[in-house]
Design goal:
Strand content: 35-45%
Shape: elongated
Number of helices: 1
Structural class: alpha+beta
Distance between the termini: 79 Å
Number of strands: 7
Length: about 120
């Protein structure tokens, strides 16, 4: 009977050691104990800086691109009167280091105006 007990103890000890070793191996293999954290790459700064001014029924926006990538800007105008047509301007390329002027108008007052950005296709 002694060999059976010894064999049983050895099998139990071996299975317990294997059960503990597998998660430890996965933990080490995933790099959790390496001390270095993988950070996602930071995107390059992009986009134009735009200043918008509204005077009565006219809106003017100046957009300057200080970054090395080309930006596409678009002026959106929402008129205050329900019968006045809101407008979305065409996209204009702003090359690196350049400034563009965007303008639009309503028949009467302007409720809001804003500029949207997107990167130019490569």
């Amino acid at each position: 009977m002694r060999p059976t007990r010894r064999r049983t103890r050895l099998l139990l000890a071996a299975s317990a050691a294997a059960a503990l070793a597998v998660p430890l191996g996965v933990h080490v293999a995933s790099g959790a104990d390496s001390g270095t954290k993988a950070e996602p790459p930071k995107p390059e700064p992009a986009g134009s800086e735009c200043r918008t001014s509204i005077e009565g029924s006219r809106v003017v926006a100046y957009c300057h691109n200080p970054y090395p990538s080309t930006d596409l800007v678009r002026l959106h105008t929402e008129c205050a009167r329900w019968w006045d047509v809101d407008a979305d301007g065409t996209a204009v390329e702003v090359a690196p280091g350049r400034t563009v002027r965007l303008e639009d108008r309503c028949w009467k007052e302007i409720a809001t105006a804003w500029v949207s950005h997107r990167p130019a296709p490569l």
